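Below is how a single chain appears once it has passed through the pipeline. First comes the sequence as given, then the structure the pipeline wrote out for it. We keep one example in the README because the format questions we get most often are answered faster by looking than by reading.
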Amino acid sequence: MLPALFRAFRGLETRVHELNYLFWECTTRCNLHCRHCGSDCGVQNREPDMPLDDFLAALDTIPPDHRPHDFTVVLTGGEPLLRPDLTACGRAIRERGFGWGIVSNGFFYDAAKQASLRAAGLRALTISLDGLEDTHNWMRGHPHGFERALQAISLAAREPGLAFDVVTCVHRRNLAQLPALHSLLEGLGVPQWRLFTVIPIGRAAQDPDMQLSDAEMVTLMEFIRSRRTAGAPMRTTFSCEGWVGPYEQQVRDTPYFCRAGINIASILIDGRICACPNIDRDRFSQGNIREDSFYDVWQTRFRPFRDRAWSKTGPCASCQAWKDCLGGPLHNWHGTADAPLVCPAHFHFAQGEHRP
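Resulting structure:
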């Protein structure tokens, strides 16, 4: 169970709902064809890249006194590095006083690109690595994906002042490779490694290799816990994939808290206003920047994110863990189902089994 003090803190954060992290889905183009993609991106856009001026107009609705010093705009996609004006985008965001970063597959990230983006104010970078060479390339659908990602990781890890981490989607094919991946990334000087599991949405919904069994989830938890207690220089954490019972204090720096719609918003490729980009955009979108003031929407809507009482339904209605997990992360609620796609307590943490 979460400490009562943390629940009180979570309630206060929800009431204040200070926006400090904004995703911009700036493109849906991507050079890779990843097996787990929740956006089903491709080389050709489903939607044109959002014009920079459209995004800046939305950003300008945030009053200057409502912009905390740690406010970060994260450009995502698709693959942001496919935008030819990415440097100009970053510079314009920085000129408005916001920090910015990108989430990338690393394929096009080289020394020249890094220098250009850093000069434009790039503050944060996340690169994906989803296994050793054969597994990563199978996952990403490109024979050179691993090589290019590793080059980008090595380059970014040596860049002073860049907030950099690597993320790995853990699935059945790479679970046994995690110790080797840990050694590889730590040897490159990566400061932080975030591990996550994938919800069965997008392409992952049709791929059973993407889903871990109960026993495999416990293996993952034990691996993360062992790396955190070993005092390794690289910080290893479990991402925001839901409440994990007795492992909460052992696989994360702070207890689970889905901050979608609490501190996190997104502007999607078609202008819709939502929280994390992976959330069901048809079910949870709150408005559109082409019709609404972005910041007014942030302040006055987002009720499904800030009052999670609606999630206490179906199997969640009688679950004793609900007050801690609140039905799990919002990206776990897709379509019209009255239950999360994957129960956050699905490997019996709520029943006290598999306790560390």
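The beta strands are 21-25, 72-76, 99-104, 122-128, 163-169, 192-196, 235-238, 264-267, 272-274, 287-288.

See the next section for the split statistics.
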